[in-house]
Amino acid sequence: MKVLIGILLAAALFAQSPVPDCSLVTGWQQHGPARSFDNETLYEYMNGNSEGYLIYGFRSMRGVTCKSGEKTFVIDISEMSDADGAYGIFTANQDPSKAVEPVGTAGQITPRRAVFVKDRFYVEIAAEPEGDHTPALKAFAAALEKLTPGTTSRPTGLAWFPSAEQTSCRLIPESVLGMRSLKRGYVAEYPYGKAFVVTETSPDAAAGVFEKVKARFRGAEAGELADGAFHVEDKYLGRVFVFRKGRYVAGWANVGDGQEPLKLAGELAAKLP
Prior knowledge:
By secondary structure, the chain is an alpha+beta fold. Helix content is 27%, strand content 32%.
């Protein structure tokens, strides 16, 4: 009975994911069988790299290999548990030196690789052999974007952080600021420090996490902001200001000279729900 339930659940899970199709672009045919994996079997396909997907809430993958003459495209569509996880794995794998393309929520197309994120789906296309496959990659990316359900809106959490002078903003899937108690959250980098927001399931859960974080620092001094705050000078994280607002634990670390931690934290707190 348990085996049957597992099979039915897996079938329902895969049914939700879009299925890549080589015929989406003229002149391409499927080569070999289609692929499908869940979080229990992904290692069979990804070898040692499966953990890099699982930490972002990987649920399932549908894939296919397409050929046109001597050209081969390996296409995989991964469904993550939520849009945050999908956007997180995209930002973790994108090339920061190259432009972001307007495909789905965000995408990137290089001569031999195309990736994009849309809602809770992360789409990858890898091209062989060496050479510039940009036109075909763009055609497949556009067709797959139409096939992929969901919204193209960016995750809500990205709007919490100041955009001025921001150098990056991405989801950290575990140990935000290197602390296990801050399990999963967004971190935005600036020339003068880094801001973070961790979302908990409830205000009570956030209060517990806040106290664990505070206990990690010696000499932490209470601050006045939102539902509780503290500030401290740390050997590794420099000037730190942490606060709790509802079910969020947030703040700043490595605050540079000439910046006021309380002011920065107050601006961040004002944008949180």
